[in-house]
């Protein structure tokens, strides 16, 4: 039945769907609250609830507060009526999550992206992991609601294509019709959106964040991606925009040359590759660092080594991270000045692996916003879902596809 909810519906099916959507959003919820939200009569609401229970779409779960008489039954969606897959394709890893309808993670797989991670290799990995998970959890094709992908842009969401992302570690990522390929091989509905959008929507479901109306979400890793909620709704720019994006906001007009061809972009100072280059250049100049003891060949230094050095208070790496954080903080301050968010979530390896970077950026952005908007308070957070946010949100997109 759930899979039919996105097709042409009879009046009765529309009422069932309306009730299911409400129970999904607000559950556990009592019948009387459902009546308040829908305007249904007591008899009709009771009948529809019975029908949703018979269809194995909802269950009774506990009792609510009594308003005099008996405590009312509470209803919530049945989490294992179907399962769904959420996929995160980023420049550093591809992740596959199997989840139930309440986004409890049942299985996960991760592929580190490197120069061998062509579209063929990556899609084959996704396909095989999905088949493995189906086998291990004894699920059939009919048990799966669909596959959601959160990916690096630019995308053609309508046609389900990854267009031409820059800075991908492997070649071949040009006009990849990933939705059609996966749908053909697996037999599921596949939907795609920008990974930063799905991550923000996943975090925004959290009770802690729901009350914020304007939210800026940033993922900082190889690139710098951001997504925005304005007045409680995801704000979308045009689809299929260029390859670069928000990391190419200029923070120094006389600054460094950037990969986009411009000068002084945030990316040129605070991307993982920019930080790595600064560290390697400094070591080549003979500067002292704990990294000299750890690594034989300077060129072999990985971003993870720098994170570890920073977390062990290596003075050189700490200074480079503070400088990079300064430019990222100026960029974030500009976003805050324009968008006036009340919540800023900073995610991605650069923020989550190094408190020093996160602290430098938030301190600067916070001070700057106090100057521009003295009466406005901004909450900064690293989010609650960590690396899984994009894939969880991609799964959420599948459920929304059937319920909207
Ligand atoms: Zn640039």
Automatic annotation (TrEMBL):
Keyword Methyltransferase: no
InterPro entries the record matches: ATPase_NBD (IPR043129), ROK (IPR000600), WH-like_DNA-bd_sf (IPR036388), WH_DNA-bd_sf (IPR036390)
Entry keywords, A to Z: Carbohydrate metabolism, Xylose metabolism
Domain of life (superkingdom): Bacteria
SUPFAM superfamilies the record matches: Actin-like ATPase domain, Winged helix' DNA-binding domain
Coiled coil keyword on record: no
Pfam families: ROK
Function description: Transcriptional repressor of xylose-utilizing enzymes.
Record-stated family: Belongs to the ROK (NagC/XylR) family.
PANTHER family: BIFUNCTIONAL UDP-N-ACETYLGLUCOSAMINE 2-EPIMERASE_N-ACETYLMANNOSAMINE KINASE, ROK (REPRESSOR, ORF, KINASE) FAMILY
Protein name as catalogued: ROK family protein
Species: Sporosarcina soli
Upper taxonomic lineage: Bacteria, Bacillati, Bacillota, Bacilli, Bacillales
């Amino acid at each position: 039945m759930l899979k039919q909810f996105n097709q042409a519906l009879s009046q009765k099916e529309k009422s069932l769907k309306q009730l299911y959507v409400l129970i999904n959003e607000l559950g556990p919820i009592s019948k009387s609250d459902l009546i308040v939200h829908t305007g249904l009569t007591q008899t009709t609401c009771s009948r529809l609830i019975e029908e949703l229970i018979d269809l194995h779409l909802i269950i009774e779960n506990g009792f609510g507060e009594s308003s005099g008489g008996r405590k009312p039954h509470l209803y919530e969606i049945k989490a294992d009526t179907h399962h769904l897959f959420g996929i995160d394709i980023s420049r550093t890893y591809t992740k596959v999550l199997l989840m139930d309808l309440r986004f409890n993670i049942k299985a996960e797989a991760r592929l580190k992206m490197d120069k061998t991670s062509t579209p063929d290799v990556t899609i084959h990995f996704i396909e095989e992991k999905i088949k493995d998970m189906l086998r291990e959890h004894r699920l059939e094709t009919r048990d799966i609601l669909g596959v959601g992908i959160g990916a690096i842009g630019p995308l053609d969401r309508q046609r389900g294509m990854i267009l031409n992302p820059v800075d991908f570690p492997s070649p071949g990522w040009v006009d990849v019709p990933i939705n059609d390929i996966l749908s053909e091989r697996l037999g599921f509905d596949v939907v795609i959106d920008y990974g930063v959008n799905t991550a923000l929507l996943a975090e925004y479901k959290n009770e802690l964040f729901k009350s914020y109306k304007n939210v800026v979400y940033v993922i900082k890793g190889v690139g710098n991606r951001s997504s925005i909620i304005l007045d409680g709704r995801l704000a979308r720019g045009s689809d299929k925009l260029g390859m670069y994006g928000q990391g190419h906001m200029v923070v120094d007009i006389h600054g460094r040359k950037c990969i986009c061809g411009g000068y002084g972009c945030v990316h040129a100072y605070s991307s993982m590759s920019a930080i790595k280059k600064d560290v390697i250049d400094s070591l080549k100049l003979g500067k002292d660092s704990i990294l000299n003891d750890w690594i034989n060949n300077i060129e072999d230094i990985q971003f993870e080594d720098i994170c570890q050095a920073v977390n062990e208070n290596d003075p050189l790496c700490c200074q480079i991270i503070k400088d990079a954080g300064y430019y990222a903080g100026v960029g974030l301050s500009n976003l805050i000045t324009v968008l006036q968010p009340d919540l800023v979530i900073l995610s991605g390896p650069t923020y989550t692996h190094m408190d020093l970077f996160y602290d430098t950026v938030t301190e600067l952005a916070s001070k700057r916003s106090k100057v521009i908007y003295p009466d406005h308070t901004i909450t900064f957070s690293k989010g609650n879902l960590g690396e899984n946010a994009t894939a969880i949100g991609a799964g959420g997109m599948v459920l929304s596809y059937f319920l909207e």
